[in-house]
Amino acid sequence: MRIPFPLKVLAVVGLGLLLMIPLVMTFGLIESRNARQMETEAQVARLTALPQTVFGPLLVVPYTVEVRRNEKNDKTGNLEEVWEEVEREHCLVPKDLDLQGTVAIEARRRGLYRTQVYRMNGPLKGRFALPDLKALSPGRNLRLGTPYLSLGLSDPRGLLNRVDLRLEGAVHPFASGSRRAHPAVGIHVLLADLDLQRPRDIPFEIPLELMGTRSFSLAPVAEETRLSLTGTWPAPSFEGGFAPVERRWSKAGFTAQWKVPHLSRNLEALLEEGPQGQAQHFGVAFLEPVNIYLQSERAVKYGFLFVALTFGAFLLRELMRSLPVHPIQYFLVGLSLAVFFLLLLGLAEHVGFPVAYALATGANLALLGTYLTAALGDRREGLLFTGGLAVLYGALYGLLLSEDNALLLGSLLIFGLLAAVMIGTRKMDWRKAAQRED
What is the largest distance, in Å, between two alpha-carbon atoms of the chain? Predict the structure, then answer.
């Protein structure tokens, strides 16, 4: 029994909408797997170290001084001069700061999920300009305390070496804690032997071997901050308030240099370490160059297009050749297209996205070619439909690779297919074709 063509169209549309259910379920599965991937990254960060930001170093000079203030006498009601001793700190930022580091990346796995851990190795060099501290603060009886140097680190657990300060020919070992010279946690070193009576430049060097996850950044507290990083990661993402002045990257790795003068940064905001200060941090993030879940998610979004184009091709064939296709055949072909995306996700977690796409495409085209050759009763037509689907799979892969041009390429693809259908059917009498179907 032939189904009237208008009813056939409604039935095919209903089947297409029904097939959106497995596509939506696959989309939800991708989101849950991606959430599990992010949980894995968080777990690895908790076990190793968080994203690292180096803050400082800062040279802090504690001091006490007597300051004068006027106080009202309760008995006489007159204002009297009172001297009060107060404790303060004078914080010096480096005149210049230079970090030249090399970054090595290693993968950490937890089951099917993988994340990256990096090791940054390089000396932190610079100099402080020690001023004349005699006129440090208005008042009397100025007494200088024991100065200390504070280095802020987002997560001191990532330190892999014994950190020493090399200052004026002496070596000073660091102790834990930043002594609240700034809001960041970190390490510090007491400088009891530092001569504070003589103004001069004080060069320093701090060897650093630091482990972290996801990103490394530097706070530009110095009057001139320079950062140079070299690493083996092929897909660096440069982040923060300042872009590199020079950068190069390839499959072999990357190099980048930053230079931040004091006029470009807001020191007060940096020392307060609020949102405005954190926005000035700069560095590099080590993101996965090919996120299989993001690419699978983008592929599923084109699933409706696969189903719509395939069903449209079947309907057009029925009109042009008066050879009906049963709704069950529509459904089975559409279901195989929907299962393709589930197969793609499962394979990608084991062999990577490019290989998974090739395997899933090959398996699905082999199944559809075998089925359509028998279902359509014509080997040539079955292979022709399979070849058209192969072109669609190839076009989809091109869209996934070209993220920046995906909208343009997708629009051109749909326009080209629509133009081919319109030109191919421009002389068709649709009323007669539909009556013939009825």
Answer: 116
Backbone φ, ψ for residue 58 (5° rounding):
-125, 135
366 vs 109 pLDDT, higher one: 366
Query: What tokens does 114 get?
Result: 């993988």
Q: Residues 180, 182, 183, 189: is their CA dihedral positive or negative?
A: negative
Interaxial angle between packed helices 303-321 and 406-424, expressed in degrees from 0 to 180 and rounded to the nearest 10: 10
222-246 per-position pLDDT tens digit:
999 999 999 888 888 888 888 899 9
Structural domain including 23 reads 5-37+292-437
User: Residue 107 belongs to a domain with what CATH number?
Assistant: 2.60.40
Residue 159 DSSP label? B
Instruction: For residue 381, tell me if it sits in a domain.
Output: yes
Residues 259 and 353 in one domain: no
Most confident of 35-39, 95-99, 296-300, 352-356: 95-99
Report CA torsion sign: 62, 66, 70, 76.
positive
Q: Where are the beta strands (DSSP E) in 185-298?
A: 186-190, 200-213, 215-219, 224-231, 236-240, 246-250, 253-261, 282-286
Q: Could you tell me if 304 and 17 are in contact, meaning their C-beta atoms sit under 8 angstroms apart?
A: no
pTM of structure: 0.72
Does pLDDT of 154 surpass 60?
Answer: yes
Cα–Cα dist 149/303, whole Å: 59
Q: What is the mean pLDDT of the chain?
A: 80
Checking if the pLDDT of 53 tops 80, the result is yes
Of the two residues 236 and 324, the one the predictor is more confident about is 236
CA distance 438 to 425: 19
283: its two tokens = 């560095």
Q: Note whether 9 and 95 are same-domain residues.
A: no
